[in-house]
């Protein structure tokens, strides 16, 4: 995927590291990247190469280094209010990417601040600081009250190996499941796949025997070999897909999950959907017994992500977002008399 058109103008973005898989997508933009690592609350103090390699044309730096840097960045990419406050004295345009619903984030962080108050605080700061808001989906943008700019996730099918599905086992990739059980409908997952061989992969220190992939190449081999992928999520808290499930579809895997209005899976065509755990378990059994069906459904899943989650759309969309952020910043500078 990392095939940018080249940094002919040598523009550089300052990017807070938050979701390695998403930040990796920025490599397609054609800009150089300064990525801030070592942030508080992160489970790793550097870039997590078990998730993705460091993007092309990028370098890693600490927050103090970024705050003191004399470089003039084309735009600053943040992911939360803390990031925005950390760079409040820098002179460049900035945008914030919304990766989660307001309600889901409040649950995950067990925050004492009421969701409506969190929304108000963000809106006040964004208005004051001239920040442009970008959401990865309409559900997530809408939960915070920002639907002006939606740039969906993206995957490149050419990043993945041809699907084989020779391992009669399901696969699910997720980090820190224990703090996200309500978001992921984990009770439903456990009921539906009770007795069904499903491999869990990810950083989950409280789950014995569950570990992250060694690196992205290792993950690609898992996507190539396992029979189907699992994604379940509460419709009011999370999208009917995430990066991992889109990766699975791009790799040619059929997907099993609950009936979510935002799911890209077409029931009976690119996977199976059901809100009945016994029925979903039955569908899992069908795919475990019929590899050829899994291969055919996986082809349909791959067609879906090519049409709906393309790298071209992501690149064009996020480049527009950056320019919008720059226009808002320039207008703010004029209004405050700094230009």
Describe this protein's structure.
This protein is of the alpha/beta class and 339 residues long. It folds into 2 domains: 12-154 and 310-335, Rossmann fold (3-Layer(aba) Sandwich); 157-308, Glycogen Phosphorylase B (Rossmann fold), CATH 3.40.50. Helix 9 (243-250) crosses helix 11 (291-308). The longest helix is centred in the last third of the chain and has 25 residues, at 311-335. The strands form 2 sheets. Strands 3-2-1-4-5-6 form a 6-stranded parallel sheet. It has helices at 20-25, 63-68, 81-86, 102-109, 115-129, 138-144, 186-192, 216-225, 243-250, 277-289, 291-308, 311-335, and strands at 12-16, 32-36, 58-61, 75-78, 94-98, 132-135, 167-173, 198-201, 226-230, 255-257, 271-273.
Can you tell me the CATH class of the largest domain? Alpha Beta
Oligomeric status: single chain
Q: Please work out how many helical segments DSSP would assign.
A: 12
- The CATH topology label of the largest domain is Rossmann fold
**Helix residue percentage:** 25-40%
In CATH, the architecture of the largest domain is 3-Layer(aba) Sandwich
H-E order: EHEEHEHEHHEHEHEHEHEEHHH
Strands of the largest sheet, in order across it?
3-2-1-4-5-6
**Largest sheet data:** 6 strands, parallel
Total domains: 2
What is the percentage of strand-forming residues? 5-15%
Write down the overall mean pLDDT.
Answer: 93
Q: Give start-end ranges of low-pLDDT stretches.
A: none
Tell me the distance between the termini: 39 Å
Shape label: globular
Please report the total strand number as a whole number. Answer: 11
SS content category = alpha/beta
- Overall radius of gyration: 20 Å
């Amino acid at each position: 995927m990392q095939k940018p058109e080249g940094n002919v103008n040598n523009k550089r973005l300052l990017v807070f590291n938050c979701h390695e898989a998403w930040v990796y997508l920025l490599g397609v933009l054609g800009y150089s990247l300064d990525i801030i690592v070592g942030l508080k609350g992160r489970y790793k103090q550097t870039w997590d190469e078990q998730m993705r390699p460091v993007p092309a044309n990028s370098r890693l730096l600490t927050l103090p280094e970024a705050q003191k840097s004399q470089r003039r960045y084309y735009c600053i990419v943040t992911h939360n209010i803390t990031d925005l406050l950390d760079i409040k004295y820098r002179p460049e345009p900035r945008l914030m990417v919304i990766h989660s619903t307001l309600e889901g984030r409040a649950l995950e962080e067990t925050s004492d601040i009421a969701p409506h108050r969190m929304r108000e605080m963000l809106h006040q700061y964004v208005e004051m600081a001239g920040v442009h808001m970008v959401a990865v989906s309409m559900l997530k943008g809408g939960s915070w009250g920002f639907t002006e700019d939606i740039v969906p996730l993206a995957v490149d099918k050419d990043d993945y190996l041809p699907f084989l599905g020779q391992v009669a086992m399901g696969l699910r990739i997720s980090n820190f499941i224990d703090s996200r059980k309500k978001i992921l409908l984990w009770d439903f997952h456990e009921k539906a796949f009770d007795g069904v061989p499903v491999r869990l992969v990810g950083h989950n220190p409280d789950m014995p025997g569950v570990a992250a992939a060694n690196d992205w190449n290792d993950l690609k081999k898992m996507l190539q070999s396992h029979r189907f992928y699992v994604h379940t999520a509460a419709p009011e808290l999370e999208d009917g897909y995430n990066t991992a499930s889109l990766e699975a579809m791009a790799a040619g895997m059929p997907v099993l999950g609950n009936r979510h209005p935002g799911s890209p899976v077409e029931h009976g065509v690119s996977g199976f959907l059901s809100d009945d755990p016994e029925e979903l378990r039955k569908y899992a059994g069908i795919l475990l017994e019929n590899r050829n069906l899994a291969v055919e459904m996986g082809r349909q899943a791959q067609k879906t992500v090519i049409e709906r989650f393309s790298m071209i759309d992501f690149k064009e969309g996020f480049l527009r977002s950056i320019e919008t952020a720059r226009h808002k910043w320039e207008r703010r500078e004029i209004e405050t008399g700094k230009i």
